[in-house]
Design goal:
heterodimer; A: alpha/beta; FAD/NAD(P)-binding domain; four-stranded parallel sheet; B: about 110 residues; Immunoglobulin-like; five-stranded mixed sheet; 10 strands
């Protein structure tokens, strides 16, 4: 422990955590969902007290976190990493009930399992439609990795099927690399329709499994609607989200700019140029912990650099990678010049295979570090 | 150039207020920028969209350099009679594009 005199309580909902990196591979049948799931036993074994439950209220004056069952936990420093909520009110006709028919599969394992089941059950010449939202979103490359993983499944199992990606954006990160990979591995299978081609989803007709954009309607056999997102609900309750729906934080300590003694890490935080990615969240967790240990000892935390790396699986032994380093500059995380790396558009098969290995190694290392 | 996108309801009741959506792919270069090697980038924008409903002008918009690329313009009109709506975009460097959509108006 960074500061052995601290006592640390982890509030965790349920006894299993489902990790989202690589979870798109579950849709292709490359990984079982259980490979994404981790327990808290080893964290408990390291001296952290585990409180099972969900934080439903925070009192920043009294400095207590209230759990769903009424228990109240006092804190000197509270760290929340609540992730995102999909905005159920952003697309006409979409909502929690609609998500049982047109899963978003963006926030929990059950949704991923539902989407996988729907793919399995769809007709051989069916149409899959994915809708990708505006930024900022959790896992900015996720919709395109997902399209790739679905294409892998369709090519093998439903060879007459078609996959349409409706996008509310006109471009996405590593677009050239994705499109080159799609042309090589899945020719003619994936059709990407960007904003200026009318790809912005505005409405769904759940009864007819139809996705409606500003200009067209798309009838789907499997519809994966990924709505726009915001920081999870508890951030509004706690008062740490601003009008953007996200949480402004100090980049040195990740302490909320709105409520003292509450730190926000992960996808919910506004972390400047850093992506909403697991690697970034993990790095933020470490920086935040180090800063809190110093704060509790009366020291002043210094700015720390952190890195992120994201992997997108296109096929087994074929992945794309992107990474960068960031440093607090003028109150925001900015890129450190000259550290951006990405798989080149003309990468060789050996490079793609190496990125896939790195993805596995990164996942194994990060989950081992986190869950033991 | 990609075909302009137009969304007019195929059917409407007489007197109903209908929404019309248009989107055209265009760079909308402002004329205020230089390239990364310092060359001046001359203005290249769409300057006007005009819509006629059975020959009568019902909507006109002048566009300026502050309008973003791929102008997406929506407006409303009253469905008066069955027929055709025509759209014409014009702009710098002799730019011109047209599109049309039919509407059936029922009582």
């Amino acid at each position: 422990m960074l500061n052995p005199t601290c006592s640390v309580t982890l509030v965790a909902d349920g006894d299993t955590y489902t990790a989202f990196p690589l979870s798109n591979a579950v849709l292709a049948g490359l990984r079982p969902l259980t490979a994404q799931q981790f327990g808290y036993d080893k964290i408990a074994g390291s001296g952290v007290e585990i409180a099972a439950g969900r934080v439903t209220g925070i009192d920043p004056q009294a400095r207590t976190a209230r759990l769903g069952d009424g228990r109240s936990i006092p804190y000197d420093r509270l760290v929340i990493a609540p992730g995102i909520d999909v905005k159920f009110d952003a697309i006409k006709g979409y909502g929690e009930a609609a998500a049982e028919v047109m899963p978003h599969a963006w926030t929990n394992g059950a949704q991923v399992a539902l989407l996988a089941k729907q793919l399995e059950a769809m007709p051989e010449d069916g149409v899959v439609v994915i809708s990708a939202p505006v930024a900022p979103l959790r896992c900015p490359l996720g919709p395109y990795e997902r399209a790739s993983m679905m294409a892998l499944f369709l090519k093998a199992r439903k060879p007459k099927a078609k996959l349409i990606v409706l996008d509310s954006k006109d471009s996405f990160i590593l677009q050239k690399q994705f499109e080159a990979a799609w042309a090589e591995l899945y020719p003619g299978l994936i059709e990407w329709i960007g904003l200026s081609q009318g790809g912005n989803l505005t409405e769904v007709d759940v009864a007819n499994k139809t996705l409606i954009t500003d200009f067209e309607s798309y009838k789907a056999d499997v519809a994966n609607v990924i709505p726009p997102q915001r920081a999870a609900e508890i951030t509004s309750t706690a008062g740490v989200a601003d009008r953007t729906g996200w949480c402004p934080v100090d980049p040195i300590t990740f302490e909320s700019q709105l409520v003292p003694n509450i730190h926000v890490i992960g996808d919910a935080a506004i972390a400047g140029a850093m992506p909403k990615a697991a690697s970034a969240a993990s790095a933020e967790g470490k920086i935040c912990a180090a800063a809190i240990a110093e704060l509790l000892q009366g020291k002043t935390p210094q700015p720390r650099e952190l890195g992120s790396s994201c992997y997108s699986l296109i096929a087994p032994d074929f992945a794309l990678a992107i990474g960068d380093k960031y440093r607090p500059t003028d109150g925001q995380f900015m890129e450190v010049e000259g550290n951006a790396t990405s798989t080149p558009a003309d990468a060789t098969a050996a490079q793609h295979a190496q990125e896939a290995k790195s993805a596995d190694a990164w996942f194994a290392a990060t989950t081992r570090e986190t869950f033991g | 150039m990609a075909k302009p996108l137009i969304n007019v309801p195929a059917k409407a009741k007489r007197g109903e207020v209908i929404e019309i959506k248009t989107l055209i792919s265009h760079v909308m270069e402002t004329g205020f920028r230089h390239s990364n090697i310092g060359e001046f980038l001359p203005r290249d924008i769409i300057t006007q969209l005009v819509c006629h409903y059975n020959g009568e002008e019902i909507f006109r918009a002048d566009l300026f350099p502050a309008i973003a690329a791929n102008p997406f313009i929506t407006f409303h009109t009253v469905a008066t009679e069955s027929g055709m709506l025509t759209f014409e975009w014009t702009g710098d460097n002799g730019f011109s594009a047209t599109g049309q959509a039919n509407i059936a108006v029922v009582d």
